[in-house]
Amino acid sequence: MKPLLLIVSLLFSTFAWSAPKSELWPYWNQSNEIHQEQISHQDWQQFLDRYRVKQGQNALVRYQAVSTEDKAKLKHYIKRLEQLNPLNYSKAEQYAYWVNLYNAVTVDLILDAYPIKSITKLGGLFSFGPWGDDVVVVNEKSLTLNDIEHRILRPIWQDPRTHYAVNCASLGCPNLQPDAFTSDNTEPLLEQAAREFVNSNKGVLVTNNKLQLSSIYQWFAVDFGTEQQLLQHLDLYRTQPVTNTHKISYDYDWSLNQANERSR
């Protein structure tokens, strides 16, 4: 059994450090800019208001406190988004749609499996998390979380701040924002998310003569550019400029972003 466990462990390690490439799914790269109707994300906002709490630098979710009624409401919200055709809306409206759908589905997956210590425990035997599983059907097309992030959001909008918007239910991930994304608040919310993460210890940690960055900057280096461009990006949001760049390490905490009942 030990050799098998070793092989499984190595496979998990490989999955953990292999980030999907940004590869456009052309079908989703169309919109109706004349259509100015907005999609309601009020149900998701109500969930955030009730169950998202801030503790130190982390935004946590009170998974254990979510009522049966609110679990059903979350599923209904996801189902309602599935039944919409996002291509009928503007690109700005679509961005909010995809980010909120991604985050709501992620929370829903955790709730279905709860109690669980990490999202990486979801998925099949040889899977590192649920990101490759079909989770929603939009326009009769099955989509995974990877599809939403790496085949729609990243290649269409080409905005590195998207990494601060989508949440993977882990302590190492940029915080789940307090507001549902909308076409009106996307820009300030992205700026807020970026500033919050870059100034947190899980984003950028400078200690003595060492610089520790989130593994996000390693996994998705292609989105942030060269090392110099990355440092410029960080300094754009940092209250203190990044220093000690000659010794850079990367770290990520996959522990569940779970709040206890005292974190209210």
Can you walk me through this structure?
The protein has 264 residues and is α+β, with helices and mostly antiparallel strands. It has one domain. It has a three-stranded mixed sheet with strand order 5-6-7. A two-stranded antiparallel sheet has the order 1-2. The longest helix has 23 residues. This is DUF547 domain-containing protein. Keywords: Signal. Pfam families: DUF547.
Summarize the structure.
This protein has one domain. It has ten helices and seven strands. It has helices at 2-17, 42-51, 68-83, 91-113, 145-157, 162-165, 186-198, 216-219, 221-224, 227-237, and strands at residues 52-55, 58-61, 134-138, 141-144, 204-207, 210-214, 248-251.
What distinguishing features does this structure have?
alpha+beta, two-stranded antiparallel ribbon, 7 strands, 11% strand
